[in-house]
Structure formats: structure tokens, C-alpha cells
Design a protein that fits this description.
The structure is a homodimer of 190-residue chains. With 190 residues, the first copy, chain A, is of the alpha+beta class. Chain A contains 5 helices and 6 strands; from the N terminus they run H-H-H-H-E-E-H-E-E-E-E. In chain A, strands 1-2-4-5-6-3 form a 6-stranded antiparallel β-sheet. Chain A binds chain B through residues 69-70, 73, 75, 99-104, 106-108, 111-112, 115-116, 125-126, 128-136, 139, 141, 187, 189, and chain B through 69-70, 73, 75, 99-104, 106-108, 111-112, 115-116, 125-126, 128-136, 139, 141, 187, 189. Strand 3 (126-136) of chain A pairs antiparallel with strand 3 (126-136) of chain B. Chains A, B: Keywords: DNA-binding, Fatty acid biosynthesis, Fatty acid metabolism, Lipid biosynthesis, Lipid metabolism, Repressor, Transcription, Transcription regulation.
Chain lengths: 190, 190
């Protein structure tokens, strides 16, 4: 494909982001054979916000469909949720999420993303974690983006069993099974 | 035992805190049959800081004995550590650690306390979590104090297996097994 002229490229970028809202500036720059700076200028011209903001906009729409937890209490941005069936969230691994000395993401950060996604997935007023088995398969490093995909694999009267697979790009980095207790009635404290 | 006069009581409180630095003001007030306010005044007179500060003072001493993680990166205060053998930490469950709607501690907070205690316990430059099985046995509520006790149950060339039991008072609230990878050599990133 010959390199596009500016107007044609901007048109193509808009279409690309519409069909894949989570495409990065880097991926666009490779696809259209221009610099990341050019992509940023194109987005500014098109009034399309940066990736982080696009993710948050999608996440905020999803919060209306989540019953068991406040949106602000979820670790990560929920970019997709089908109540009681499956859900996906994204976190960006920042300085606070890694060990200072080796810049590797801390285990509990991946656990927290997966666990809160399980809570968000279940459309019940009270959801609590009963037990969990997790495997940390690949190291996750500073500035990487982790996409957690949760899906229900079993449901009983009191429990959902949910499998979570987390990826950096296409690499599986974390695998977890969460047994989640739920009740449709508000419980008394104490 | 007859109720003590002020001077005798203060003397006894000092001895009690020396032998049990983690006794609460509430426990002292019950033991000496005076109000919590009186215990606070007694401590002020004796120049003994509040419990939270006493825990932090002990924790800071322990950080010298921890090799795999910065003291500030540990979730909780480490009040006891025998490198490669056992360790104990304490967290106070505050507003940030609970679900807003039911004031129950979030699972990943207990997981983070246990997991970072496992890292702290192992006296090696690089320690990473390989896998983990956890059970959330009792609900933990706002303002409760959780004491996590970790001990090594197996050690091989590359892995430690560590069991963590976490308690609120004498009640077991969390049980976890963590398989921890370690290496004595610094790894390259990338």
C-alpha cells in the first residue's frame, strides 16, 4: 500500500480507532508508516483523545452495568462486561506497581486486577472471594499493559467459579481461578 | 487483685508493655480496670507511644534484616522476622482496604499482606511469586487488625514454599500457600 497523504491518513486513522478503540499510537505509527509524533498530531486534529482516556471513557460506560462494586473500587479499567458471563479489564503497570530494585510487577497487583474483575463481573449486591488459585507465568515489567479476561466456568446456588487469564500483548502472564460467594440479600454487619 | 493506685498502675503498665509491646490500650484498660482515656494519660506520662507507633518502631528495626524487598514496599509492618524461617506482620484495616458498601476488607489486601511477607521472609536478592493458593475463611472488617504469620514449610534449589496464616485476634481469617522462586544472582531485565 502506498503511503497515504495527510488527509487520507487522518481519515484512515479515524476509521481504525473506531473499529479498534484500544489500538496504541505506536501500532498506528507502524501501520501508517509515520512517526508517533505525527499520529499524536493527527489525533489532536481529529479530536480523538489518547489511549488512556479512550479506555477510561469505555470503562465509565461499563460501570452502569456493574452491581457488586463501585467503579472507583475496581483495580483497572473495565473495557467490556457481560454480567455473570465475562469481563475484561486493563491496567497500566506504573512505578507504584513494581519492585523498585528490579522493575518487575508485584504479584498482588495482578491478583488485585483479577480479583476485582471477578467481583465486578457478578451481578449481585454482595460478592466476596472464597478461595483462589493463581499462577504467575511470565514476569510483567514497568510500563507494560495487562489485559485480564475473566469468564464464568461454573455457577451454583451460592458460588461462581471464574477463570481469569491475563495477557501482555498476546503472552499469558497470569492464570487464576476464583471461587466467589454471592448473595442477593444485603447482609447485616456484626 | 485490688485496683492499683496511680503510681503503682503506671509502673505495672510500663512492665506490661515491655513484655508485650503489642498490647492495645483497650486490653490494658480491661486489665487495670480503668478507662481507655486513663491508659492514654498514663502512656503519655510514661512517654510510651501509641500502639501504631510501637509497631512501626519494631518494624523499622526488622527492615535491616530483610534483603529481597525495600521496607517501604512491604504491605504491613513486619514485627518479627527470622530470615528464611518465619516472619510476622500486622496491618490495620482502614477505609481504603474495605468495600465502601459493606465495610468488609477486600481480598487482595489480605493477599498483598501475605504475599509481601513471603518476599520479605526470604533472604535472597531476587524473590518472585510463582503460584499461590489462598482461602478467605472469615470476613475482616473496617478497623480490625490482621496479624499474618508466615513460615517456610519446604525449600528446594529454586523455590521456597511458605504457609501464611492470618488472624484477627485469635480467629483465623486467611490461609495461604505461596510457592516463591528465588535466585541469589541479579537478573538482567529484558
Amino acid at each position: 500500500m502506498p503511503k497515504l497523504k495527510k488527509t487520507a491518513r487522518r481519515h484512515a486513522i479515524r476509521k481504525e480507532i473506531e473499529s479498534n478503540p484500544f489500538v496504541t499510537d505506536y501500532e498506528l505509527s507502524t501501520q501508517f508508516e509515520v512517526s508517533i509524533q505525527t499520529i499524536r498530531l493527527d489525533r489532536t486534529h481529529l479530536e480523538i483523545p489518547e489511549l488512556r482516556k479512550r479506555i477510561q471513557q469505555v470503562a465509565e460506560k461499563n460501570y452502569d452495568r456493574i452491581r457488586s462494586i463501585e467503579g472507583s473500587e475496581i483495580i483497572g479499567d473495565v473495557i467490556d462486561v457481560s454480567p455473570n458471563e465475562h469481563a475484561t479489564s486493563i491496567i497500566h503497570v506504573n512505578e507504584e506497581s513494581v519492585f523498585t530494585r528490579n522493575q518487575i510487577a508485584r504479584g498482588h497487583v495482578l491478583f488485585a486486577q483479577a480479583n476485582s474483575l471477578c467481583v465486578a463481573l457478578i451481578h449481585q449486591p454482595i460478592v466476596l472471594t472464597q478461595s483462589s488459585e493463581v499462577k504467575f507465568i511470565h514476569k510483567v515489567r514497568l510500563n507494560e499493559t495487562v489485559r485480564a479476561e475473566a469468564r464464568t466456568i461454573n455457577k451454583s446456588d451460592q458460588y461462581y467459579t471464574i477463570e481469569v487469564k491475563s495477557y501482555v500483548r498476546e503472552d499469558l502472564v497470569f492464570l487464576g481461578t476464583f471461587k466467589m460467594y454471592y448473595t442477593s440479600e444485603d447482609e447485616q454487619n456484626g
